[in-house]
Sequence to fold (255 residues):
Amino acid sequence: MELFDTHSHYNDEKFDEDREEIIKATFDSGVAKFMCIGYNLESSKKAIEIAQNHENIYATCGISPNDIEDSNLDELKEIEELAKNPKVLAIGEIGLDYYWEKDESKREKQKEFFIKQIEIANKLDLPITIHTRDAYLDTIKILKENKVNNCGIFHCCPLNNELIKDGLKLGFYISFSGVITYKNAKPEEPILLVPDDRILIETDSPYLSPEPFRGKRNDSRRVVEVARKIAEIKNESLDEIAKITFENAKKVYKI
Ligand code: NI
Fold:
């Protein structure tokens, strides 16, 4: 069985002590490929560095809505240059986060960065990976008004049926994380909405460890727990979910 973790942050400082050890353990565990996702300028550079040192790790670069306060629009020129690296397969994570940002003018800044980074993705012919939290309507509105030529992924997709339906209609892939294993998560209906050819798995490590590891530092080895939960809900085998999500990941990232 081969697994593809479509969203992890091995560029995070939480891996500074044992990054190479964890990367080796990850590949030994049956994860055949994974993405290292940037969220600001520094982490994007780090993601590329890690990807360049490992054949089966790929990078994205972008400025996330939660990193916008410390970023300026000039940095997007640098993101665009970085994204020309052949190991960079998407722009992201980008989007809107109204859970953490309550200030209206700062939400406007999030929208501006989101739109400008969609433009970079289109210019470089790349897909995007979207972070959206408590911002369903504005996220969909921006995607409708700013067509993404190579579609992309709703990363750690909120378990919101309307968002999933709209995302699918716009051609996007839906990626589920360890959140679907949490007690009280109610993932059945959202997961069953997503057809086999649009579903992806991820860890978002070092965050969001699936059960029974909730609260501990997460890494890509645990993506199997996400696949297991989807298999259970879709009433398919774990092998089949691994295969489907692997093929989908290769397709969206054009590997
Ligand atoms: Ni993330």
